[in-house]
Amino acid sequence: MSAQITGCGPGAEALLAALHAQCFAECWSEAEMAGLLASPGVSALILEDEDGPAALALIRVVLDEAELLTLGVLPDRRARGHGITLLRAAEAEARQAGAARLFLEVSHVNAPAAGLYARAGYRQVGRRKRYYRDGSDARVLARNLE
Ligand SMILES: CC(C)(COP(=O)(O)OP(=O)(O)OC[C@H]1O[C@@H](n2cnc3c(N)ncnc32)[C@H](O)[C@@H]1OP(=O)(O)O)[C@@H](O)C(=O)NCCC(=O)NCCS
């Protein structure tokens, strides 16, 4: 089976939180996920491969701008194209909701994510000094959605 992507809403917070916890050191609780899913403009996507759920993405769309709130692939399912497949699906979802541009923040020490976003056509539009708890800066990246 090739990767399948499905949108999910309220009720999916436990799965989303479990996926997020395996992808990030600072994870979001089920309650935080539920709050996000109930927020205006927020959509969540899950990518499944032949071994089950493998990746998650959340976006928020406000008027013609979208923000990628999170994107993560389970550690043992990386380097198979899931990250870029899910990013493209999140972009399509954002476009469908009316967004013309997608913004995201990424730590300046996160090399895999930097590689992914550069390959996907994102350019740096700003920097927030010492934004993350580990003291790293956030690079603000953006891409126009055709
Ligand atoms: C960043 C992340 C989502 C990439 O997911 P992935 O499924 O491994 O990425 P893909 O297989 O789709 O790779 C797509 C492109 O990203 C880049 N890339 C992926 N992993 C990389 C790495 N370790 N080093 C450098 N570039 C990398 C490459 O350009 C790659 O294209 P290529 O395979 O043709 O070289 C994944 O490493 C992850 O979940 N990391 C932890 C969470 C995180 O940091 N999320 C981003 C927060 S902003």
List keywords for this structure.
globular; 7 strands; 29% helix; binds coenzyme A; 146 residues; alpha+beta; Aminopeptidase
CATH C-level label: Alpha Beta
| Named CATH topology | Aminopeptidase
Helix and strand pattern: EHHEEEHEHEE
Record the strand order, biggest sheet: 1-2-3-4-5-7-6
Query: Helix/strand-derived class?
Result: alpha+beta
Can you list the ligands bound to this structure? coenzyme A
Can you describe this structure?
The protein has 146 residues and is an alpha+beta fold. It has a single domain (4-144), classed as Aminopeptidase. Helix content is 29%, strand content 36%. It has four helices and seven strands, in the order E-H-H-E-E-E-H-E-H-E-E. The protein has a seven-stranded mixed beta sheet with strand order 1-2-3-4-5-7-6. The longest helix has 15 residues, at 82-96. The protein is globular. The N and C termini lie far apart (29 Å). The model has no long low-confidence stretch (mean pLDDT 96). The chain binds coenzyme A. The site of coenzyme A (COA) has 21 residues, from strand 4, helix 3, strand 5 and helix 4.
SSE topology sketch:
Elements: E1 4-8, H1 13-23, H2 30-37, E2 42-49, E3 52-62, E4 65-73, H3 82-96, E5 101-107, H4 111-119, E6 123-128, E7 138-144
Helix pairs in contact: 1-2
Residues 23-24, 71-73, 78-84, 104, 106, 110-113, 115-116, 119 line the site of coenzyme A.
Summarize the structure.
This protein has 146 residues and is of the alpha+beta class. It has helices spanning 13-23, 30-37, 82-96, 111-119; strands spanning 4-8, 42-49, 52-62, 65-73, 101-107, 123-128, 138-144. Helix 1 packs across helix 2.
